[in-house]
Task: structure prediction
Amino acid sequence: MREPMREPAVAPTAIDDDRARRFEASLSRAGLGLVPRLGERVSDALLARLLRVLAERHPRAFEALREMQDACVLIEPVDAPVALMMRVGPELSLHARPRGAVGTGAAAADAVIRGPYARLLDLLEGRIDGDALFFRRELTISGDTALILALRNTLDGEDEMDLMADAASIAGPLARALPVLRRNAGPVLDRVEAARRLLPPPLRRGIERIGARIEARLTGTVPGTNPGAGA
Amino acid sequence: MTASLTLGPVLFNWPVDRWRDFYARIADEAPVDTVIVGEIVCFKRAPFFAEAMGEVVERLTAAGKTVWLASPILVGSERERSAMRDLVSADAGIVEANDMGALALLAGRPHAVGPTINVYNEATLAWMAERGAVAVSLPAELPAATVAALAKAGRELGVAVEVQAWGRAPLAISARCYHARAHGLHKDGCQFVCGNDPDGLPVTTMDGQPFLTVNGTQTMSHGCLCLTAELPALVGMGVSRFRLSPQAMDMVRVAEAFRAVLDGRRDGAEVAAELGGLIDAPLVNGFYHDTAGALRVA
Amino acid sequence: MDNFELICPAGTPAALRAAVDAGADAVYLGFRDETNARNFPGLNFTRQDVADAVDYAHARKVEVYVAINTYPQAGNLGPWQKAVDDAARLKVDAVILADPGLLAYAAKRHPDLRLHLSVQASAANVEAIRLYRDAFGVRRVVLPRVLTVPEIAKLNAEVDVETEVFVFGGLCPMAEGRCSLSSYATGLSPNKQGVCSPATHVRYEQRGGALASTLGGFTINVFGEGEQAGYPTLCKGRFVAGGAPAYLFEEPTSLNAMDLLPELKAAGVHALKIEGRQRGKAYIGAVVRAYREALDSFAAGRPVPHIDLQAMVEGGTQTTGAYTRAWR
Result:
């Protein structure tokens, strides 16, 4: 078995339990997985709203992103069903699309950054050194290297971002649920994992469906309905 | 005023007999005005040439050449320092400084500034002129617009501005010897392997593309700088000296060709075609055209 | 015993706060343009950022240095001179310069501004250092990474100026400020544009399981499956010079001189510098914290703890570089 990667001692400000972090990563990844089922119009509206919140909270970075030349970066988590296409420049926008969908793949992007979802989240939030990740080949990049560097440097220029908290603030129920989740994530994760391991495969799928429903309710994104993104 | 030709110092580690013969032929046949002499790349090589130095300088001077001695590029160790001090104090004539330490020692007397000292703008040029610089050879990476601004400033300050017009471009200097390293040796026990490569050690990419040239502690371009086609424009800017950097080839023919272009007797492009056939490297001029130095811009 | 001053990099305001909070004595940074040698996309400080940085650092008794260490362009000195003027106006503690013309300008226009000589000036001997001190009143010299510790000791014994040396981070095997390798491959150079092996000219391509990196169309390296990768800095590439492909100039390795603190102190070094204005704040926080701990232990006469910075280094290897003679 491989040794776990040693991380620099960077203390996340809002989360003190590593398991909470992992739980959040898997939760948000699942949330991201629901996005395409909302339909493009709804998911785009939701992400537009998220961008507006981020822009309010991180004005320096977002001004810098708007000052960049018009270009598209595909952020592709290799372990999630959805990739994010970020357009930087005056037309700053964020779109989620199923991975491999026509018109949103690598061909449509000026640059692509690929890696495990949790690592990409760490990178976007500035918790981890992108160069070190790249040296270890956990991340791969292709296309316009300068564009990726500019995006990385711009986001890294913010004090640690808390994308979960930012995202939660636009989805009412999660805003209240997040602090509780963070406190309880360790035990919850243990219980879910234990349950999953103990169950026979058909039931395992069942618990995963239940999990997805819980997650959907938490994020306020019931499939096929407008979650009240207000856009 | 017509532009003059300078023969830069031999940068490679040639056997001393070859070195002596090279300068004898330059003295007798090459239409160059100034010859700069000295081992400037590696302190360890210098003793080999010391014995022939006096003879070479005498021969060149007797042939009517202006001879300047050059100081080493990198001076860090105690022995390198004392060699630099000796050079500056022993030679009453013009010394070409290739390091800021030598420049410091030459203050207040006429001297030249070599291409490995960073002169990138008119403010630095003025500061050097004030301290006694009479000629400045510009770094190879400067583009035309910068050369033009410096040539203009040089005319106002009374400093002759020089541009390298032939030969591999010096790109970097290190305390580490890459020739030794390529042979699995340490600098202290280098066995003078650089002597095996009179035109430097070719460096290619992993795809087999020729790229650089290693010359001991110095790294040079693979492409050979050639500015024959640009000479008229350079003269128009006020550049008054052109440096030919020796390669293991017929440098007399190179000097004759450049002289012919400067005198308006031959066309620069035609001369480039001829000279290109004499060296196993592409001719490049990208630096001058403000792009990658490895490129050739028509 | 006086402790070394710890001089730390910042490419962004967040990185500056990370460095200050982790125990820097001074933070060096650059304006957001070609006047500094880390002119990378998305990096560096606006004038307002510098004002804020000075406020933040000074409130915590930490100094701010501004690097204006590229060579001003002939016929266009304005941006460099303005950078010096603005640094003085913003009350930074020192400017780090390399170009004699710009040093002359700064010394004349701002006699009270503290001048440091950038590593990009590559002043490697006593004569050169005295020249910068006498001509411009330079107070500190950042030494080029070509000298051994005994050479540094000799130099400090002979010249009365503070010296600062690099102890951690990316390692130039070439004399700094005297290298046109990047320029040869891309047209852009550290001296002119403040970039080395610029990202604009870098491409990565998958070749089966291998990862190839190119710069200006030249293949700089090909990493086999599972092999640690590196950014295609030209001098850290793998090339062929008469044998098998090899790291001809330097392995993709990082300088780490933490084990040399006693020798550097005995050599009379005043300040230790961490490289990496282009690295993220996670790197800066971790490295600065480690060095703070090491310096405090050393100053207190305790053994220097072994602090693992392996996760931070390029290529996953560390070297003491030119400080030990074997490197040559």
Notes: The CA atoms of residues 12 and 158 of chain B lie 32 Å apart. Chain B touches chain C through 75 residues (CB under 8 Å). The first strand of chain B starts at residue 4 and ends at 7. The longest helix of chain B spans residues 46-62.
